[in-house]
């Protein structure tokens, strides 16, 4: 079997694992209906790895833009707490800090795995950077090659217990062509970001797309 065939086989396996995680995340979204339930408080959006199809960690991220009403957020958490699969709810008051919002993290048991549903309630005039604003640029920029590279690196880092910032990993692969976890660790020596990052990827040019394959 040639190296190209091995790479294609490995990529297919990586994508299949991601699809399994995506299906689990979608099942949780259907059970909790967070996008519908948050509408009473503002405009909710799915963001993060699930929205790009790059799930490795069992995390679901949601941003809501509206009035910062702590009591209304806790009322919603109280409804979810009645679900026996909800094992933990944590609250973070970041008003006055860089994130300038209210955060709730819900621990949800799905099968053998504990998922974290992270939900941020942010003011309507939140200046950003907003995670939701990264969704469309990421979907436009991802190619089969970069999608597989990101998933492979995420899985390798998770197996090794190495912490990483997803936005740094996306920058490294999409902008600088990083292809594996060792390259990514070297890339971080001089390129790691600090704090909130307002980064958007460029879409691949039409000329490059036919040659970007696994």
Short descriptors:
214 residues; alpha+beta; single chain; Beta Polymerase, domain 2
Describe this structure in words.
It contains eight helices and five strands. The protein has 214 residues and is of the alpha+beta class. It has two domains: 125 residues, Beta Polymerase, domain 2, CATH 3.30.460.10; 77 residues, no CATH class. A five-stranded mixed beta sheet has the order 1-2-5-4-3, with helices on both faces. α1 crosses α6, α6 crosses α7 and α7 packs across α8. The longest helix is centred in the first third of the chain and has 30 residues. About 3% of the residues have low confidence.
**CATH class assignment of the largest domain:** Alpha Beta
Strand content: 15-25%
Q: Mind telling me the C-alpha Rg?
A: 18 Å
Q: Any idea how many domains? A: 2
Biggest sheet: strands side by side, in what order?
Answer: 1-2-5-4-3
Examine the coordinates and then state which fold CATH places here, giving the name of the CATH topology of the largest domain.
Beta Polymerase, domain 2
Helix tally equals 8
Rounded average pLDDT: 91
Low-confidence stretches: 206-211
CATH architecture call of the largest domain: 2-Layer Sandwich
For CATH, the homologous superfamily of the largest domain is named as Beta Polymerase, domain 2
How many strand units?
Answer: 5
Largest sheet: 5 strands, mixed
């Amino acid at each position: 079997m040639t190296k190209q065939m091995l790479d294609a086989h490995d990529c297919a396996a990586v994508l299949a694992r991601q699809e399994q995680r995506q299906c689990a995340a979608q099942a949780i979204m259907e059970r909790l209906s967070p996008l519908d339930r948050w509408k009473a408080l503002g405009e909710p959006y799915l963001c993060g790895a699930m929205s790009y199809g790059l799930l490795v960690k069992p995390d679901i991220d949601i941003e809501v833009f509206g009035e910062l009403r702590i009591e209304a957020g806790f009322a919603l958490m109280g409804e979810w707490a009645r679900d026996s699969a909800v094992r933990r709810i944590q609250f973070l008051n970041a008003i006055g800090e860089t994130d300038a919002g209210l955060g709730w993290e819900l621990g949800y048991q799905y099968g053998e795995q504990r998922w974290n549903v992270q939900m941020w309630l942010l003011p309507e005039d939140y200046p950003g950077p907003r995670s939701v604003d990264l969704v469309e640029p990421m979907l436009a920029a991802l190619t089969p090659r970069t999608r597989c590279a990101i998933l492979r690196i995420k899985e390798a880092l998770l197996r090794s217990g190495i912490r990483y910032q997803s936005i740094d990993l996306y920058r490294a692969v999409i902008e600088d062509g990083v292809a594996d976890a060792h390259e990514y660790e070297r890339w971080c020596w001089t390129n790691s970001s600090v704090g909130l990052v307002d980064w958007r990827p460029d879409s691949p040019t039409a000329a490059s797309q036919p040659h970007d394959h696994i």
